[in-house]
Write a structure and sequence with these properties.
single chain, about 325 residues, alpha/beta, seven-stranded mixed beta sheet, six-stranded parallel beta sheet, 9 helices, 15 strands
C-alpha cells in the first residue's frame, strides 16, 4: 500500500510516499481503509520537530515512528480478536495522535478505542476534519474546573483562520459569546465569514495593547508574553494556549500558573487536553448535525500530493482545514 513516511527530521521535503506492507489487525485493533485525512499543525510539529524538546519523546536523532497523519476517516476493512464495537464496512473516524499515527496512507491499524462511528450521511471529508482540531477547540473553551464559555462572554480567538480557530469561533458563537478573531491581513474576510463579531488584523493591531479586555482568550500558537496577555483579560478571565515555540510553551507552563496565583485570572498551557474524549466527540457531532459547526475546508489534495498539502499548511496559507483524499 501507499503511505507517507519520514525517517529523519527536517522540512516537509523529508516526507515521501512509499510502498509498504499493509497493516494487520492485532488483538483489539481495527484496520481502516482511509478515505480522507486532514492536516494538523501537530503533523508538522512532528516533522520538524517543534518544540525541540519533544525529541525526548519522538527520538533524539531521528523519529522512532516513521508514520504520519493524525486525523483519519474511512471504512473498517478488518477487525482483530476481541473487537466488539465495529465490523467490516462500518464508517469510522478518529484521532491517531496517542497511537502510532499513519492516517496519510491507504490503510491504517489502531485500537478500536481510537475510532468512533461516522453518523449516517456525514461525508468522510467532514468527519476527517473533526478528531484533533475540533476537540482542541471545544476543550480550549472549557477550563479544568469545568467552567465553559457562556452567553455574553467576550471571547478572543488568536489564530482564528487555521486548523483549530474556525471551530473555536463557531463553538463560542453557538454558546452565545461575542467573538473576536485574530488573523493576518489576507484572511480577514475568511474569518469574518465564520460569523465573528469583530476581526483584528495582527499586522495592524496588537490585542494585548488595544485596551480591550476579554473573558476568554484561546491562543492557538503562543506569540505574546503572559505578562502582556494578562492586561487583555478581565478579572476572572481565562487565557489558554494550545502550543507554540519551545520558549513559548515553557513560559506558558512556568509563568502561567504563577500569574494565575498572583491574580484572579486563569492562565497557561492547556494541560488537561484529552484526545478524542467520547463526550466531546458526541457534542461535536450534535453541533455539526444542528448546523452550529460547519468545517471550513480550504483545499483537497490526493495522497500522491501529501507533501504539497503539508507545505500549504506549513506556509500558513490555508484557510481552515486541508484535506488529503485517498481513492
Amino acid at each position: 500500500m501507499k503511505a507517507a513516511v519520514r525517517e529523519r527530521y527536517g522540512s516537509v521535503d523529508v516526507v515521501e510516499l512509499r510502498d509498504i506492507d499493509p497493516p494487520v489487525a492485532a488483538a483489539g485493533e481495527v484496520v481502516v481503509r482511509v478515505r480522507a485525512a486532514s492536516v494538523n499543525r501537530a503533523d508538522l510539529d512532528g516533522i520538524a520537530p517543534r518544540p525541540q524538546f519533544t525529541r525526548l519523546f519522538l527520538g533524539l536523532r531521528r523519529p522512532r515512528n516513521i508514520h504520519l497523519g493524525i486525523d483519519a476517516a474511512g471504512t473498517v476493512e478488518s477487525i482483530g480478536p476481541g473487537v466488539t464495537r465495529f465490523k467490516a464496512g462500518d464508517g469510522v473516524f478518529g484521532d491517531l495522535y496517542p497511537f502510532r499515527q499513519g492516517a496519510f496512507a491507504e490503510y491504517v491499524a489502531a485500537p478500536e478505542r481510537a475510532f468512533a462511528a461516522i453518523p449516517e450521511g456525514m461525508p468522510f471529508e467532514t468527519a476527517a476534519t473533526l478528531p484533533h482540531s475540533a476537540i482542541l477547540a471545544i476543550q480550549g473553551l472549557r477550563r479544568r474546573d469545568g467552567r465553559t464559555v457562556g452567553p455574553g462572554d467576550r471571547v478572543l480567538i488568536d489564530g482564528a483562520s487555521g486548523n483549530v480557530g474556525p471551530f473555536a469561533v463557531q463553538i463560542a458563537k453557538a454558546r452565545g459569546a461575542e467573538v473576536t478573531g485574530v488573523c493576518s491581513t489576507a484572511k480577514v474576510e475568511f474569518v469574518r465569514s465564520l460569523g465573528v463579531d469583530h476581526v483584528l488584523d495582527y499586522r495592524m493591531t496588537d490585542y494585548t495593547a488595544s485596551g480591550e479586555r476579554y473573558d476568554w482568550i484561546v491562543d492557538t500558537d503562543s506569540h505574546h508574553p503572559i505578562s502582556r496577555i494578562r492586561r487583555a483579560l478581565r478579572p476572572g478571565g481565562t487565557y489558554v494556549t494550545l502550543g507554540g515555540s519551545g520558549s513559548g510553551v515553557l513560559k506558558a507552563m512556568a509563568v502561567g500558573p504563577a500569574a494565575s496565583l498572583a491574580s484572579n485570572r486563569s492562565m497557561g498551557l492547556m494541560l488537561w487536553w484529552k484526545p478524542f474524549a467520547s463526550a466531546d466527540v458526541a457534542t461535536l457531532l450534535e453541533m455539526t448535525a444542528a448546523g452550529q459547526i460547519t468545517p471550513a475546508i480550504d483545499r483537497r489534495y490526493p495522497l500522491a500530493e501529501v507533501v504539497e498539502a503539508l507545505r500549504r499548511v506549513d506556509a500558513g496559507q490555508a484557510r481552515g482545514k486541508v484535506i488529503i483524499t485517498v481513492s
